[in-house]
Amino acid sequence: MSVGLIIIVGTLACVILDLWQRFLLFFFKVPPSNWAVVGRWLVYFLKSGRWVQSGIIKQDPIRNELYIGWAFHYFIAFIYALFYFYLYKQGAIAFGLKEGLVFGFISVIVPWFFFMPAMGAGLLGNKTPNPTFTCFLALGAHGIFGGALGLFFKLFY
To answer: From its phi and psi, is residue 145 left (phi > 0), alpha (psi between -120 and 50) or beta?
Structure first.
């Protein structure tokens, strides 16, 4: 039951994150994550073994990169949900909105220090046009996602 629950909660929290990005696009013209480029990064990473792909946005598109990127996005959501559930089982965290927000805010270290550099955006997005805004977008997205994880786990477990 736990794996099924983790898949459901991770998926629902990811949907909430995706809806958040659509909200930002609709009301504030902030573009959502580009999952096609993420898919392209993943394929190049798997082929080359190099996690830093600094020119990935300028690379030629690859077949099915959008689908690969979306699948990877939801797979990572599952990994985060699995880790949250593991921490819960270890007694390190509870289920709930506050706990989920804390988890989400802490989890932002992954894009700041791994994924942004891997995509060529630099540490903390320092190679983007507006690093501070980029970091706040990631922080907000991870907070929304983490909060949703906490709430959905509390609701379903």
So the answer is: alpha
